[in-house]
Amino acid sequence: MSQISFDQFKTALEAAVQQKSSSYKNVYSLTMRWEKDDTNAARDTEHFQRLLKALDVAPAEELVIQSGDPVYSITFSTAWLNLVGKAAAKPERNLVIFHYAGHGTTRAGSFVFAETSAGTRVINADRSLIQPVTGSDYLSDSNNTDVLIILDCCCAHIATRAPAIQRRTVEILAATSCDTPNARCGPENTFSAKLANEIATRRRQGHKRVDFADVFQSLKGQRVNKVWPTYAMMVGMFSVGLALNGNPTVDIAPMPADYRAILSVNISKDITPDELVDLSRWIRRLPPFAGVFIETILIQPTYHSHYAGSNPEYW
Q: Where do the Peptidase C14 caspase domain residues begin and end (predicted)?
């Protein structure tokens, strides 16, 4: 087992037991498709707008890339960065939701949006959509903007690589997976339609809130037309949560733990016995919802500690 430093271990443990507030002051949404689309993406735009309505969120801006636009990549990047910038400029915690329906494929290892199946005009989604919100050049870790990306197209799972752990959230729900890269289904059975139907059903059932990681889990169980969807937390560790009670601002109370996990941690030699004692005291002072406790501490030539715990947002 490779070693970690004491500071690395404590930082990771603090992140694991943190209960993040999912209170959003503003929700900004953008849905994008191509004018020459032949996948019935306009219908998926309607499904997405219906999803937002069920969440009591304002309708999304609709970006339709025109067939005669000579700078279509710039058109998309400008619209996307303007929306993210609008949210990032505000001091409150805000959420940005992006939806795409149409053709998706790969070029030189990158995930791209394609105007048609021929792929003569493409937008590099890795570079234009994902990198600006997962890197720190445009959105710092201290920024209060979370991002939810819904990709209803072929090869969408390619966009779900290389997650990073930060305080904010960038979450992707993709219609496809490595095993089923093609998103082929009827117009009323697309990934967008399934998402909208799932949230509408939960609203009718009286649910007070929706977490998109949980929604994904339900859809994965349904296995839409034998196509496996993909979920990824690209940045952070907490799924986007929204209310279903008529108010898009929701403070989510800590949930009780559902699972128990046991960890064995090999801490490097630079930790002292006094630091181990301080760490033990710190863990025992954690609030009840954290669900973390010390099982054993073994003092060896390399400090080898065992912890057992559970946390509904992390494990």
A: 39-165
